[in-house]
Specification:
220 residues; mainly beta
């Protein structure tokens, strides 16, 4: 079986398993454990979260649209440890448009771990490109109040025109970035190679469309 055919089978299967596991945990088992509370006003509209792979019990979070090109390192108790600033898009007033998700995964240097910021929101479906920012994880991000980091940007286009996305995932085995759209009862799954160079513009590959009839486990 070709690699493309394998991906066409694995993509919807993995995504549905994730949705099912989340739904069972959230709505059937109903087990929610609160480990902390965010109490810093700068983190007033947290949209995404990812666990650090080099700093134990440290998590990265970021605000939704309206914030600048930055994200935060927090403890499991919700304490703000550091604010990490990165170079965004100079054509955007605040450096970013609408960052919706964050992930941690491999990158160009196999000895390092990287943070990926997905500036992928597009409420009006009018953006010609959405942006992914990649920057290396730093141990200093939990030791300094403010950290400046250099990000590598990639510009992504949909094969069928602008769309609005909410979720981004990293596949460390197939070395792919996944983008999941929203705004309807059917969502589209797109991928693009994890390897990219600064300011590359890439047309994403459509993988599948998912329809969850009479079920919306990702809300609430």
């Amino acid at each position: 079986m070709s690699r493309a055919k394998k991906l066409n089978i694995l993509v919807p299967a993995v995504f549905l398993l994730f949705v099912g596991a989340y739904a069972r945990h959230r709505h059937v088992v109903n087990q929610i454990i609160i480990t902390g509370t965010l109490q810093v006003k700068e983190m007033n509209e947290i949209s995404g979260i990812a666990a650090s792979s080099i700093n134990k019990n440290i998590f990265y979070v970021h605000n939704d649209s309206g914030d600048t090109s930055r994200f935060f390192a927090i403890s499991s108790a919700g304490k703000l440890l550091s604010t990490i600033y990165y170079n965004g898009d100079p054509t955007e007033g605040k450096g970013v448009n609408d960052v919706e998700d964050i992930a941690v995964g491999p990158g160009p240097d196999s000895k390092k771990s990287y943070v990926y910021l997905g500036d992928i929101g597009d409420n009006g479906s009018v953006r010609p490109c959405i942006n992914i920012y990649r920057l290396a994880e730093q141990a200093a991000s939990i030791k300094e109040k403010n950290v400046n980091s250099t990000a590598t940007a990639m510009h992504l286009k949909y094969p069928d025109g602008p769309d609005d996305a909410e979720a981004m995932m990293i596949d460390p085995l197939e070395k792919l970035i996944y983008i999941i759209t929203k705004r309807s009862d059917s969502v589209s799954v797109f991928t693009t190679p994890l390897a990219f160079k600064s300011k590359d513009t890439v047309v994403m590959t459509f993988r599948t469309k998912l329809f969850l009839r009479d079920s919306n486990p990702l809300t609430g």
